[in-house]
Amino acid sequence: MPLIQLVIILVAVGVILWIINSYIPMQSTIKKILNAVVVIAVILWLLSVFGIIGSLQGIHVGR
Fold it and tell me: How does DSSP classify residue 56?
């Protein structure tokens, strides 16, 4: 994946998260949980992109 595409995706995720945090009224605890989930998902995706962890296709949630 080209570096510019990676940066564009990270900026888009950041802007979307900022819009959600700024314009959608929610409790602060829900915002914290949402931010943590997004940050963890982005970190896992970045680790997968750079080949530090294996493919994320092997991760299953639920059955």
Answer: G
